[in-house]
Amino acid sequence: MKLSKEFYTLLILIACLTSCQDWADERFAATIAKECNYNVIGISGAPSEKPYVEIQYNKDDGNGNNILVSEMVSPPFLFGGHKVNILCDSILYVSGTTTNRNKYRVNGYGLVIQHSYGEADSEYLRIINHSTDKTIEYFIAGSREMETSDKDKGCNGLPLIKTMPAVYYKHAPIYYLLFPNKKYTQNVQGNAADCNDVFYFEGNRCGDLILEKPWSVDEVMNLYRSEYRNSPDIRLDIEVYWGDLGRMTQIINSGKPYIQFKRFYGTIMPGEELRGNNSLPLLATPYALDTNNIILQDRK
Predict the structure, then answer these.
(1) pTM above 0.70?
(2) What average pLDDT does the segment 24-36 reach?
(3) How far apart are CA 271 and CA 116, in angstroms?
(4) How much is the pLDDT for 17?
(5) Between 244 and 76, residue with greater pLDDT
(6) What are φ and ψ of residue 8, in 5° steps?
(7) Is the pLDDT of residue 128 over 70?
(8) SS3 sequence, 64-129?
(9) CA-CA distance, 90 to 208, in Å (whole number)?
(10) Each residue of 117-131: b (16+ CB within 10 Å) or e?
């Protein structure tokens, strides 16, 4: 069978299109040092005149290094919210054509955290329960500063949220309930298309709550305890990558590929300890459950 000239022309065209198709990749650029907020940790347990809980963690010494803090405390106790020094991989997002893979265009960049849990590292943590008969509880609340878009507005004209302190109750970040002096002071919008998705922060408003004084560690612990027990009356929410917004424990256990399992609450039995690990969200990243561990991203 004789093939037509048009057929051969089609084959050549297909081969050309295949060889010239676009590709996209991520390329390592450099390792850089950066400051990051350490999230807030609360500890609850039976009171005692003699401290029985030992905590160890690192913080910035003011010269770009981490310094170890070690102390004995009695519940209730709250620590964190300070700065630590982390290392990140600087990543370039590039694309090009297969005809010349050495020629490409840069479409943006990102900073990906190098997680580390050694004694000199940013995510080093030990909470040791030295009691022989007292169980203690802990919670973790995000301490990242609120960020809003300078250009984009919601359907009601309010600034749109880019990131906010992870974990909130009735539209109120736990971080602000614990530290009202850190509270954002402008009303903002979450979903650009939902005019009812407003976070109120003006005056003494904090989400849907009226905030007149700081919440205690035990009050906040009750929220976490209830959430992890699937209370029908109390729920904590969290925002993650790609705009997922909803009940914290449901999102954590959803199994979605871009969500990393994290534990924001737990107990430490007598004589046992909790160490920093990749299931504890100790650093205040934009999205607490993002498997990519991206702390900064700018893509075209």
Answers:
(1) yes
(2) 82
(3) 25
(4) 46
(5) 76
(6) -65, -40
(7) yes
(8) CCEEEEEEEECCCEEECCCEEEEEEEEEEEEEEECCCCCCEEEEEEEEEECCCCCCCCCCCEEEEE
(9) 39
(10) eeeebbbbbebbbeb
